[in-house]
Amino acid sequence: MLERTRGKTSASGEALARSIEGILAARRSGAGRVVRLEAGLERADPLRWLSGRPERPRFYWSARDGNLEVAAVGAAEILDGVPDSAGRLPRGSRYYGGLRFDPAHDPASEWEGFGSARFFLPRFELVREEGRTVFACNLVLPRDTARSLELAHAARSMNPSSGAEDVWSALPEVVSRGDLPGWAGWAENVRWALSAFSEGGLEKAVLARRVTLELSGELDPTSLLKALSAVSPGCFGALFEPDRAGAFVSASPERLFSVEGTEVTSEAVAGTRPRGISESDDTGLSRELLASEKDLREHEYVRRSIREALGRLCEEVEISPQPEELTLAQGRHLRSPIRGSLRAGVSPRDVLEALHPTPAVGGWPREEALSLIRELEPFDRGWYAGPIGWIGAEGAEFAVGIRSALVAGESAHLFSGNGIVEGSDPASEWGELEGKLGAFAKVLGFGPPRG
User: pLDDT tens across 402-440, in order?
Assistant: First the structure.
């Protein structure tokens, strides 16, 4: 059920509170029934609003195409797993969350609060979607009928406002940097992968590095995401902050998939070059990427994997005949758009389970690559390179959680990975890893490791 009320920005909290009181006073029954209440706004900034909210969990999402921006706080319902179906949700309500990269890997202490897979139906949301802005509340009936005063008071207290710009915290300085693995360990891991290729069976492995920054003060995750968004246009912005943990922040260029009706859209993204320092240099790097036998081979593993996975779920699958270039502010990649028409009864959960992890973040074949990653990487990826996004009654969308960090107090763990195939060079791959940290380096002001 969806009910809307219209009010000015300054009155939206009061309008929503009155709607909450009216619905809950009626004590409408229906086990597990979700009611969504919305108050219209003239304008508001979801990320700025989120920055001032103490409630947990907190979630933020901005779509790559700019058509959807959501800030969400509190939980009407929490699921420790992927929603099997969102059909009971009214239009506009969504489960937000994500998954670990490798649920079979025991979580390290810093990731314990995130769970293997966690989704929640927010209590309150500030949503900008296709030119319309609303302040919304999700109620689960009859469970919430006894909480009328509490929820109405909360709506009034967190009334969105256009506010001032001074809510953003200055980003602290970097005091120290540690790389795991360091250069020697990275080179050894690449050599291990290359030897596995020569033995047969494994064709690609995506190996990652964790960079830990110690900072001069506490790092506010919303301020970090705002800064990243400014230097990473054309990316998905995501933030998830559970009850008792740090915050996962991502400015990802890569869509895992989206579902609208029966149409599913995905993309193969693999193969990397930096941006040039001049127009002629940039053009040369573009031509080099599009003609690179190694990068095209690496990219083909991802194309093949996604095409085969969607082929098992779709009536038909279409893929671009040749990769195109995905050009970003901090780099460029090979990209192949893929779409399909889902068979009857196939859910977003089915698509998620079929696609993750793609060879762009794991390797090929999948199980052999995951086995090598578990053996070689000396840290827990956690939610890095896992799916993050939403599932609703009208569809779903997930990004791949790359270009990401785990932020906790005065520390930040940054992650970057590279696809290793036959012919990979440890030094070149190390340089690409550093390039993928470019947005973080730009906003936090750190340089490459010493030595």
Answer: 999 999 999 999 999 999 999 999 999 999 999 999 999
- pLDDT-derived band of residue 161, with 50, 70 and 90 as boundaries? low
How many angstroms from the chain centroid is the CA of residue 78? Answer: 18
Q: Which parts of 115-165 fold into alpha helices (H)?
A: 148-157
Distance from the Cα of residue 264 to its chain's centroid: 18
Domains of the chain, first to last: 174-216+254-379+417-444 (3.60.120.10)
Residue 101 and residue 381 in contact, taking contact as beta carbons nearer than 8 Å: yes
- In the block, tokens 């098992």 appear at 312
For the chain, helix (H) and strand (E) counts, in that order, are 11, 21
SS3 at position 255 = strand
Nearest to 1 by CA among 119, 137, 134, 124: 137
* d(C-alpha 286, C-alpha 271), whole Å: 11
Tell me, yes or no, if the pTM score tops 0.85.
Answer: yes
The Cβ of residue 106 has, within 10 Å, a number of other Cβ atoms equal to 10
Question: What residues are labeled active site?
Answer: 204, 254
- Give the residue from 56, 18, 37, 243 showing the smallest Cα distance to 141: 37
3-state secondary structure 71-126: EEEEEEEEECCCCCCCCCCCCCCEEEEEECCCCCCCCCHHHHHHCCEEEEEEEEEE
Report strand pairing: 58-62 vs 236-241. Answer: antiparallel
